[in-house]
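User: Some background: our group keeps a shared notebook of sequences we're curious about, and every so often someone picks one and asks for a predicted structure to add to the entry. Today it's my turn. The entry only has the sequence so far, pasted here. Could you supply the structure so I can complete it?
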Amino acid sequence: MPDTRFAAIAEKVRAHEPLSRADGVYLFEQAPFHEVGKLANELRTEKNGRRAYYVFKRYLNTTNVCYAECKFCSFAAFEKDPRSYRWTAEQIIDKACAEPNDYDELHIVGGHDPKQTSLEFWLPVVAALHERIPHVQLALFTAAEIDYMCKRARCSYEEGLTQFRDAGVTSLNGGGAEILVRRVRDLVCPRKASAQEWLEVHRVAHSIGMKTNCTMLYGHVETLDERVEHLALLRELQAQTGGFKCFVPLAFHPEENELHEYGWTGGVDDLRTIAVSRLMLDNIDHIKAYWISYGIKMAQLGLNFGADDIDGPVDNQQRIYRDAGSKTDQSTPLSDLKRAIEEAGFEPTRRNLLYRVLEPA
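Assistant: Of course. Here's the predicted structure to add to the notebook entry:
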């Protein structure tokens, strides 16, 4: 018997009508797995053709000192922990500018470090980076870090973000969203920016002309209803501002953190989450199957379940996932990533931070 509920959802998708929260829950809980993937791939193809984007970027995790105490985090350390580290301004600039520096995007994430995460520390660093490597677009800080810095400086989000924009920041990173539901945040990250604060930082960033990413950390304490609520909140903000350029679903990694009992997400859950995200977030142009999180083989499948981006090669280590148990070989060369894209049936397409297509490497 035909699935009339799924057929009605497919009709909405093809008519470019937003899906309801009830539709999202159905897609997660009951809709046929392969049909969800096919519909997501149909929408992905309509938006992006056969392109699969990659970007040359450099990751810098400039400190792991953090007092937010998020239960899912394997990266953070207190000041006196022997694992802790903190780079100076000079070290950050040197590492960002080190040759070869022909990359396109600099991605920086740290922690809630009272000795580094401040406007006073970062504004001159950003200005120096913008001057030294003007060809590199700066994707700096999460909304949670912006919230932390602005509260410390006793300034508004608009004041803080405007200063960063004028110093050279191109875009905010999408992290810190986790699940934008109070019950979940009270359990896993009660000392970090609330859901409303996270959304407001991005709203303000969009209002002053900054494009941003958004994420969802899934596979821990949240319910499927709460995943859908998270996606719906992102879609609603995007409908108001149009400022999100990409959504990145992030599978929870369980090693060396307080939520280890939840274990690893399964491949079916990962692919369904990518697909449902594509269908729920029809007004966000790009969905990323982040290969450093999923591994390259799962990222290939993700490209056929609604994703159109896998991120790209990195010339150093992304420590946050490594510390949480990721076994992905981050030294995978561009040639292997491009071959993986082609094997999946797509056209490797080099982009910059704002998704302008660049000459292939």
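Suggested note for the entry: The chain has one domain: 4-350. The chain has a mean pLDDT of 93.
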